[in-house]
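User: Predict the complex with iron/sulfur cluster.
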Amino acid sequence: MKDQVTALAAFEEEIQSCQHCALGAMRTRFVFGVGDPGADLVFVGEAPGLEEDRQGEPFVGRAGKLLDRILAAIELSRQQVYICNILKCRPPDNRDPLASEVEQCLPYLKEQFRIIKPKLIVALGRVAAKTLLGVEESLKNMRQQVYNYEGVEMRVTYHTAALLRNPRLKAAAWEDFQIIRDRYRELAGLPPERKQEQAGSPGE
Ligand code: SF4
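Assistant: Here is the predicted structure with iron/sulfur cluster placed in the model:
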């Protein structure tokens, strides 16, 4: 674990001035990732947004607060998991990442995975999922599948920004997060959590 802390900090230091794509010149802050460098569960979004760019941390602002509430509902905090994005710099106007930007930045995420060694990766949103998996499916279809990302189990659910835009998706997302909780606990060798299905969605 100590090695992972050191290795991840050294890697962040190494790449934090990256200018490999045009987004480097536009960023306010480089957004590396946050959480436990030895986490069994890693969440991956597509790219920093406005608040993330300002604060240098992924999933802050309203979408981040919702993610925090969902994590709390499955008895986790952002300190116990790892949260990051495919791109480390914000695309203008929050547009989708370009293929050329992903090509430049994805090796950084892969190195983060190599150091952290997660047991379960969760892609948040269709863009993150299709970028990592190279599939053109609807999120509705993807969230029902179990994938393998370079030897690590991977699941897909809604980005919390989508849940804010469309609150009707929250019930489905809550189903996904209960499955993620159970699978994470199983893979991490933890006892099953008491069920909270009756409690309702944490976003409500
Ligand atoms: S988005 Fe990635 S590749 Fe592009 S400048 Fe930022 S860190 Fe470098």
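The longest strand covers residues 152-157.
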